[in-house]
Amino acid sequence: MPESRFEPVALPELPFSANLQAHCLSFEDAWEDYPWGEIVYKVGSKIFTFLGINGALNGVTVKATPEDADCLCQLAHIDRARYVGKYGWVSVKVEDQAAYEHARELIAMSYELVRKRPKRGSRG
Asked: Could you tell me which residues come within 8 angstroms of residue 30 by beta carbon, excluding any fewer than 6 positions away?
């Protein structure tokens, strides 16, 4: 399991943060990193979830396909992510049990999308 070269960041005191952290770390080869003063979850060197986003978001940001992102952004608790939204990333506000359960599903989908994505410059 890789180790972060960044200083650890405290888990945000947001609803469901510890549960979301445990869920992200439950995936094969998943690990926690702290670039940009954020908490992110990676598989290998690729991020599949951002947690908290410097306290500006009460939830997670995950990767989706562009088509899925368009549909997901129709829901009240999901917005296109700042900066990386054009690449299919969406931010999920996790303020109740239903949104938490949905976030867990989207984290799993994000993990699978990122895990299967070939590295840039690779063929096949």
From this structure: 24, 41, 42, 43, 48, 111
Which tens digit of pLDDT belongs to each residue from 54-63? 555 678 999 9
Q: What's the token pair of residue 38?
A: 């954020």
CA 88, 84, 93: angle at the middle one, nearest 5?
Answer: 75
Q: Which domains, from first to last, does the chain contain? A: 24-116 (3.90.1150.30)
Q: Say how many C-beta atoms besides its own lie within 10 A of residue 119's C-beta.
A: 8
User: How far, in Å, CA of 18 to CA of 38, rounded?
Assistant: 15
**The two three-digit tokens of residue 3, written as one number:** 């180790």
Tens-place pLDDT, residues 64-116: 998 999 999 999 999 999 878 888 999 999 989 999 999 999 999 999 999 98
